[in-house]
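Regression check, zinc ion case 413:
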Amino acid sequence: MTFHNPWFLAALIGIVGWFHVKLLAEFLNLSRLSKEVPEPMRDVMTEEDLERAMEYHVALAKLEITRDGVMLGLFILFWWVGGFQWLDGLTSNIGGNAIVSGLLLISVLTALQGLLALPFDLWRTFGVETEFGFNTTTFSTFIGDRLKGLFLGALLGLPLLAVVLWLFERTPYAALWAWVVTTAVGLLMSWLSPRLIAPLFLKFTPLEDGPLRRAIMTLAEKLQFPVGEISIVDGSRRSTKANAFFTGFGSTKRIALFDTLLDGYTQDGIVGVLAHEIGHSKLKHVPKQIAVGLAQSALMFGLLHFALHDERLYAAFGVRYPSIAMGLVLFSLVYGPWSHLLDAPLQGITRKHEFEADRFAAESTGSPEPLMASLKKLSRDHLAHLTPHPFYVKLHYSHPPLLERLQALAKAK
Ligand SMILES: [Zn+2]
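Current build output:
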């Protein structure tokens, strides 16, 4: 380990720097919690609601800061005592060949990270979310979700990882092929997961014929949006937070409404939310975001290509014998924090798309009011931070802050 090693410096500055950037954003954001209900929310929100939202954000920030601090401390310690070299020796002894040892190494590190994060996940679900009345997950559902996630991750992730490792062992242009393979698998999964994976976690039941179903179908017909199926999802089994989503390419659009959304939101309001979602699809937001994502991952694999063959990367983490799997791990550690520099512009694009979808909803339903009412209710019920700090928004928000959306929607009248 030496300060002359650029990988060592990039890792140290990136990891420690990102921690401090996040910390700064948390404090700036907390300082912006307003004590007064903002004007547009006065008809749906009391001072008491606001007080509760403030307490919620303080509790979340405490959790975030503690988790980040503990994880950073443990990571630095692991690095300092030569944990990477130790684990490399252990897994290559057990594994035998490069691919099996590589799979073992990455599995052990992933499991370790998951185990360390588990207490904080429990704190969030059964501490903060329960305290503020959001959590409806039972302990067995929580554990069941974890086990299913672990099983799926192994089932899908290990073969893909094996292919990537094999490519890097065999071909000089492995980074290019790995980019192609992971992109193809990613696209395939986003197509398959609503059909195969979502039903493992959520129960879908068809929405019965009635005024809501007819209103949705009328909107879909008017917008020439082919709806194959409208279902209700049992989101209430995990959280009281409401949501709507839909999926599917081509002719089989599938709309899923959380049962929590049916509870308390008006029919027009739900239609407004769906019009927003249809807007994303009609305005081709998903392909645009996929294109940006592809450019990002191309850059990552390009850098990876150079990193894997640079012995200084391994030396920076005290690893004596370079290997593909260890290279992937170490590169991701260095690249991870710096990649947030790229996230900011990408999130800028998604925030722009949200405004566009909002405008689409207002125009297609003839009025911005129902969507505005739903957004206000969602923000109140989810105890949203109404006046987030711009720096925090830049860093973390994929959606524009509520007040900005309401302002833009009000103009669409
Ligand atoms: Zn949206």
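Comparison notes: The domain at 202-263 is CATH 3.30.2010.10 (Zincin-like). The mean pLDDT is 91. No diff flagged against the previous build.
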